[in-house]
């Protein structure tokens, strides 16, 4: 308590006048500092509406009810070049079609794109379209993989005590419940398992399977430190509603489990399901509601990457989740030519917030086969983070993270112990995973300065490049 006596309420002093002048000055200052808002900065509120899909020749006669039907979306998803051609007809030029024909053939990931995503691509300029770049591979853009890439770069298989459960962090674990998704992203970290086998790759199998799931649940129940489960895959959108119920009720019944999340790209690539798959969304809502009564949080983590992915259809779907009290958080992947500038990233964050989705993480793109043209440098992430922080509420500002190759887990991009911009090697420590280990991330080689490119061109230099960076990290003044 302060001992200063309170001012007498009605004592006549000149103070109010002084205060008024002060206020007027402050108002002037504020007025001068804040010119009228540039309408362009409110662009995040303008969502694409109307029947935009009708510009795709195959969807010309598709009415709204059909386009909103998730079964129609699934049935008409494009997995083969022939089907893509049938949808686009004369919309894309021959050179581009030839390029993707080759691209499909070499891609490590199966291709699957929803009609909704196809309709959001600007087919007059497909090479620079941010949605096309994420889902449809071309041959001409293919770059050599980084020499330090290996297929399970996050060591999810190595950190799995039972098949399909990665237990890396003390209190949380990642449950890979299935291996299919409503779409396949070229940049997928789990391309070692997710999707069908492709022309060039055979996958690890993670089918929805009761015996495998039972082993996962037994493990989770047996570890009292586990409180938090990420249900991913693949994608929880492809779990049937009875799967959602079985997993949800099993986890809710475990006293150690305090929270879990269904991870799904669905809201970004097929919001139609939230609007029209009533049994599925009602089951999910029921699990969230049961959780709430038990004081356990059940929520959705989704994956929007570009502001063009957020339309009036998204808004309707997110409104439905919001009305049901379902928290949705977003994890983006920073991708070259997709969202690697502060303007696009800023618009994405504002637009996500506008539809009540919390931007949670922006990941450095993992080292994944066949997509080095989508990766960018750590420096780009550092710069963008600096630009977007402060634009909006702190809880709507994501943490930019590197999921350190070798199983180091997620590290704040700024927390590197060493970053050599010439060789593109950044070094992180991760005390909660392994206090003695050093984890390296590698910028894509084509974006390095010439000296760095030359060193990587010599395989005899590779070990030296890495051990040098780690030595520097060790001796960094702390
Ligand atoms: C990302 C991840 C989690 C969840 O981490 P959060 O930072 O809480 O989102 C858990 N386990 C593994 C293996 C992960 O990769
Ligand atoms: S939806 Fe997720 S798991 Fe599926 S392909 Fe895309 S990034 Fe991978």
From TrEMBL:
- Which cofactors, if any, are listed as required? [4Fe-4S] cluster; pyridoxal 5'-phosphate
InterPro entries registered for this protein in UniProt: Aldolase_TIM (IPR013785), Lys_aminomutase/Glu_NH3_mut (IPR003739), rSAM (IPR007197), rSAM_sf (IPR058240)
The answer to whether keyword DNA damage applies is no
Single GO MF descriptor: 4 iron, 4 sulfur cluster binding
Q: Which SUPFAM superfamilies match?
A: Radical SAM enzymes (SSF102114)
Q: Which residues carry this modification: N6-(pyridoxal phosphate)lysine?
A: 410
- Source domain of life is Bacteria
| Keywords, ordered alphabetically | 4Fe-4S, Iron, Iron-sulfur, Isomerase, Metal-binding, Pyridoxal phosphate, S-adenosyl-L-methionine
Stated EC number for the protein is 5.4.3.2
Per the similarity annotation, which family is this?
Belongs to the radical SAM superfamily. KamA family.
Q: What is this protein called?
A: L-lysine 2,3-aminomutase
Q: Which organism is it from?
A: Enhygromyxa salina
């Amino acid at each position: 308590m302060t001992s200063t006596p309170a001012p007498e309420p009605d004592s006549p002093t000149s103070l109010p006048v002084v205060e008024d002048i002060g206020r007027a000055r402050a108002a002037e200052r504020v007025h001068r500092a804040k010119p009228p808002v540039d309408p362009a900065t409110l662009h995040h509120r303008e969502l694409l509406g109307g029947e935009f899909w009708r510009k795709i020749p195959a969807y010309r006669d598709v009415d709204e009810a059909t386009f909103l039907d998730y079964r129609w979306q699934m049935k008409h998803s494009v997995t083969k070049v022939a089907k893509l051609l049938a949808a686009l007809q004369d919309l894309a030029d021959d050179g581009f079609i030839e390029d993707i024909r080759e691209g499909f053939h070499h891609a490590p990931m199966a291709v699957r794109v929803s009609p909704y995503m196809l309709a959001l691509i600007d087919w007059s300029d497909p090479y620079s379209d941010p949605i096309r770049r994420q889902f449809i591979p071309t041959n001409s853009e293919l770059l050599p993989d980084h020499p330090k890439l290996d297929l399970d770069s996050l060591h999810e298989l190595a950190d799995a005590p039972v098949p399909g459960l990665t237990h890396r962090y003390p209190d949380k674990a990642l449950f890979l419940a299935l291996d299919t998704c409503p779409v396949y992203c070229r940049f997928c970290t789990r391309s070692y398992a997710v999707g069908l086998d492709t022309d060039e790759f055979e996958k690890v199998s993670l089918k929805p399977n009761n015996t495998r799931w039972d082993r996962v649940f037994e493990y989770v129940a047996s570890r009292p430190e586990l409180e938090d489960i990420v249900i991913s895959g693949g994608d929880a959108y492809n779990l049937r509603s009875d799967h959602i119920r079985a997993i949800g009720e099993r986890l809710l019944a475990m006293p150690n489990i305090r929270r879990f999340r269904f991870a799904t790209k669905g809201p970004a690539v097929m919001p139609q399901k939230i609007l029209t798959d009533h049994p599925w969304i009602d089951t999910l809502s029921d699990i969230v509601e049961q959780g709430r009564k038990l004081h356990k949080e059940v929520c959705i983590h989704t994956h929007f990457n570009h502001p063009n992915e957020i339309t009036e259809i998204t808004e309707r779907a997110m409104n439905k989740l919001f009305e049901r009290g379902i928290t949705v958080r977003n994890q983006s992947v920073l991708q070259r030519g997709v969202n690697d500038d502060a303007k696009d990233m800023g618009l994405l964050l504002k637009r996500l917030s506008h539809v009540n989705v919390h931007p949670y993480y922006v990941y450095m793109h993992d080292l994944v086969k066949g997509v080095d043209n989508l990766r960018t440098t750590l420096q780009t992430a550092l710069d963008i983070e600096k630009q977007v922080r402060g634009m909006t509420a702190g809880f709507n500002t994501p943490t930019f993270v590197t999921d350190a190759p070798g199983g180091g887990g997620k590290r704040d991009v700024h927390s590197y112990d060493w970053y050599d911009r010439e060789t593109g090697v950044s070094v992180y420590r991760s005390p909660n995973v392994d206090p003695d280990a050093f984890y390296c991330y590698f910028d894509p080689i084509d974006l390095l300065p010439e000296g760095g490119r030359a060193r990587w061109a010599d395989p005899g230099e590779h070990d030296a490049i890495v051990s040098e960076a780690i030595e520097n990290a060790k001796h960094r003044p702390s």
